[in-house]
Amino acid sequence: MPPTSIPAGARRGRPGYDQATVLKIAVEAFTEFGYDATSMGMLAERLGISKSAIYHHVPSKVEILRLALDTALTPLEAVFDAPGAHSGPAVERLRFVIRSTVVALFDRRPYVTLLLRLRGNTEVELAAMQRRRQLDRRVAELVKAAQDEGSLRADLEPGPVARFLFGTVNSLTEWYRPEGRFSQREAEQTIIAMLFDGLLPRR
């Protein structure tokens, strides 16, 4: 799935470069140095082009950030629109949402990593953080529904449970390495097993 597009008139093309390349390099720089500390000049140097050439692909630094955060959030939000999030027992819908979130994170890992490091210093960041909070609320609603049906223990507050579930999934951005010994599938299976089945041996 390609990154969310900006108006075609804002990107007229440049030999050897495209919007996706500019976005990829920008996300790497934003994550390494922070959005505020990354200048368009730094991005131009990393790309090996002039600063003015960047504007053939994106109109501004803030638009790069908006595009990057949309690229992270849109597939995470789409998880809740999938059929598996609306059919069956609440606990199975919750399991589907968490598993699909892991898959989306792997697919958009650099962008999700940037999302998780936001400081809320701009309107674009604040809007993205609000969208993240909405995801937390939707997971909390599923947790509450699963508690009501007796599938999850009812002595825990749904809000903190939702944040713990997402926090565990988000930890993949810190410790998972594609070149490591664990495949994405193995990491996904381990996280789902721990979150829903725990660490105690089955009897």
From TrEMBL:
Domain HTH tetR-type: 16-76
Nucleus in keyword set: no
Entry-linked Pfam families: TetR_C_24 (PF17932), TetR_N (PF00440)
Protein name: TetR/AcrR family transcriptional regulator
DNA-binding region: 39-58
InterPro entries in alphabetical order: Homeodomain-like_sf, HTH-type_TetR-like_transc_reg, HTH_TetR, KstR2_TetR_C, Tet_transcr_reg_TetR-rel_C_sf
SUPFAM superfamilies: Homeodomain-like, Tetracyclin repressor-like, C-terminal domain
Top-level taxonomic group: Bacteria
Keywords in alphabetical order: DNA-binding, Transcription, Transcription regulation
Gene Ontology MF terms in the entry: DNA-binding transcription factor activity; transcription cis-regulatory region binding
